[in-house]
Amino acid sequence: MTIARHVKNASLALIALSSFGILQGAYATGTPSTTVINNTATVDYSVGGVSQAQLSASANFTVDARVDFTVTEVGGAANPTYPGVNNVIATFRVSNTGNSTQGYALTVVNQLTATPQGLSGNDDDLNVNNLRVFVDDGNGVYDGPDTAVNIGSLAMDTNRLVFVLADIPAGLATARYANVLLTARATVINTTTLVTESAGNTAGVDTVIADAARDNSESALDTYDVGVTLTLTKTVALISDPLNGTTAPKAIPGAVMEYTITVTNASTTQAATPATVTDNIPTGTTFVPGSIVVNTTTDTTDSQFQNGPPARVVANAGPVPVRVGTTNGTSTVRFRVTIN
After folding, report:
1. Could you count the other beta carbons within 10 Å of the beta carbon of residue 275?
2. Which of these, 62, 131, 216, 245, has the minimum number of CB atoms within 10 Å of its CB?
3. Is CATH 2.60.40 the classification given to domain 230-339?
4. Domain covering 66-226, topology
5. Is residue 8 very low, low, confident or very high in pLDDT (cuts 50, 70, 90)?
């Protein structure tokens, strides 16, 4: 009777301990797939005061594969660019948040839905050309070695930068916005074979698709902000008057006023040419001969003044140079008038 009671209690203990071990393994966050979770229970007992050989029993299972990943845009802002510029880079990050090493097939398209707002806060109204995908070689910047178009192998809890290159159409007259969509799909390592979810629960390693929509497809949007390359500003300065000369002059009849028109180029790659500045001589004033200056060159023959009507300055301010570092390229046109 004593022996039977010991055996019965040992069996209950074994069941309880085995069950506890299985539950603990099931909740092991981040445990890699293919890991074998093993649990062994032991029973020590005596019969008639004599210690007996320890009993033990084990139960184990293999952790299944949770396929989970994200695609995010890097930088949080639109990519500024200009018409006619090629190889403009948008940067994304693919992160493996699952519990096994995974490959990823990558595709990029112009945003095809109606007019969703991109990172610029403006609706998409332009398709860019020659979209291409390159996977970072590990140095964090786009360069020559970045040639892969898919991620062959990405370990769990790691990520990889992905660069999308695009060519911007030329000949745009106003600011435009182009959204591009990068999509990743999990694949078998170093292949283009898409991962699929296991149909049932087997003793081996099953696969569970666990991304946001459980459809093995994650995407992120980035925006090309295609600005108009040139901007124009105009200022006027009082030079002199017939009573005070250049000492604290006033804008009275006979005073000389100088207009300055500045053409600014913010592009780092595209000089603007030709850039023709046209400015009518204001009513109530008269053009001062010999006063046209383009950048540092004086138009001594007034070849860029037209009597009209209307009388006007038509000056060639191009080419307007490209931006260097933080300094925009500029060209200026200056001319003077007298107040009638």
Report:
1. 19
2. 245
3. yes
4. Immunoglobulin-like (2.60.40)
5. very low
